[in-house]
Amino acid sequence: MKAYIASTKYENYVTIVFAETAGQARSIAMHTDACCEAEFTDIEVRRYPKADNQYDGCSEMDWENPKHRLFLVSECGFSCVEVDYIYCKSCIAKEKCDTYQEYLAEDGDKYDQP
After folding, report:
1. Where are the beta strands (DSSP E) in the chain?
2. Is 41 exposed, middle or buried (0-12, 13-18, 19+ CB in 10 A)?
3. Do residues 97 and 73 touch, judged by C-beta distance below 8 A?
4. Is the CB of residue 91 less than 8 Å from the CB of residue 100?
5. Is the CB of residue 10 less than 8 Å from the CB of residue 42?
6. To the nearest 5 percent, what fractions of the chain are helix, strand and coil?
7. What is the mean pLDDT of the chain?
8. Which of 17, 53, 55, 84 is most buried (CB neighbours < 10 A)?
9. CA torsion through residues 27, 76, 10, 46, sign
10. Rounded-to-integer distance, Cα 89 and Cα 79, Å
11. Given pLDDT bands bounded at 50, 70 and 90, which one contains residue 6?
């Protein structure tokens, strides 16, 4: 299976899907949270070979899957859409997350303070 980054022309959300062809990737992307409201012709896909080895039988990388999340954050630069720093401490990808690391560098961890 080949990995594709899928997004819409008008939104900033992206996802990684797995398919044999770009057309199949676009079709799969229509059923993801990132692209579900888009028309087929408004979905853009591009090959992302870096993620080919992440295929594990699922048609889309799952943010809730710890292995997928670690890859998405460390290798693709993904981060939470809405960051709630209190949950960052228990995130598997916190050491690789640019958003969380910038927060620690600028503000320290204010949730540790009384």
Report:
1. 2-8, 14-19, 43-47
2. exposed
3. yes
4. yes
5. yes
6. 40, 15, 45
7. 91
8. 17
9. negative
10. 14
11. very high
> Higher model confidence: residue 113 or residue 2?
2
In the sheet where 14-19 sits, what is the strand order? 14-19, 2-8, 43-47
Residue 60 in this model has a pLDDT that exceeds 90 = yes
Q: What is each CA distance from 105 to 9, 30, 102, in whole angstroms?
A: 34, 38, 5
- pTM of the full predicted structure? 0.85
- 3-class SS of residue 112: helix
Phi and psi (nearest 5°) for 79? -150, 170
pLDDT level of residue 114 (50, 70, 90 thresholds): very low
pLDDT above 70 for 109:
no
Residue the block writes with tokens 């209190």? 86
Question: What is the rounded CA–CA span in Å between residue 16 and residue 69?
Answer: 11
Burial of 71 (0-12, 13-18, 19+ CB in 10 A): buried
Q: Which two tokens stand for residue 77?
A: 């630069």
